[in-house]
């Protein structure tokens, strides 16, 4: 049996932070997790292709999106909330890291 291709599930926390995953393909489906603390996505993994780190972040409806963010999917409404999964570009990841550094340990 050839197991070079498989479908994997990943979870991105709803925490206003970017999260990286080693992927060989992009998301094919997106759904809210039952606990409302993360968004799950499914992506095909192909062992014959090299994985590259791809970075995703969850945004709520009406929230500001960083420059270069690419929509990956939207979850159906759960308990009145709708989450949107975006893949972040290198520019967006750098900006998020800078915001985190400023928010933690900055001058008082």
Task: Give a structural overview.
By secondary structure, the chain is mainly beta. It has 1 helix and 7 strands. The protein has one helix at residues 90-103; strands spanning 5-13, 19-23, 27-32, 38-46, 52-60, 70-74, 83-88. A 4-stranded antiparallel β-sheet has the order 2-5-7-6. The chain has a 3-stranded antiparallel β-sheet with strand order 1-4-3, with no helix packed on it. The radius of gyration is 15 Å and the shape is globular. The protein starts with a strand and ends in a 5-residue tail after the last helix. The mean pLDDT is 86.
Q: What can be said about this structure in brief?
A:
With 108 residues, this protein is mainly beta. It has one helix at 90-103, and strands at residues 5-13, 19-23, 27-32, 38-46, 52-60, 70-74, 83-88.
What descriptors fit this protein?
108 residues; four-stranded antiparallel sheet; 7 strands; 1 helix; mainly beta; globular
Unreliable spans are none
* Helix and strand composition category: mainly beta
Biggest sheet: strand arrangement: 2-5-7-6
Gyration radius, in Å: 15 Å
Our count of domains comes out at 1
Q: Name the beta content range.
A: over 45%
Provide a count of the helices: 1
In whole angstroms, how far apart are the ends? 61 Å
Please state the overall shape, judged from the principal axes of the Cα atoms: globular
Order of helices and strands: EEEEEEEH
Let me know the largest β-sheet.
Answer: 4 strands, antiparallel
Average the pLDDT over all residues and give the rounded result: 86
**Share of helical residues:** 10-25%
Find the count of extended strands (DSSP E, 2+ residues). Answer: 7
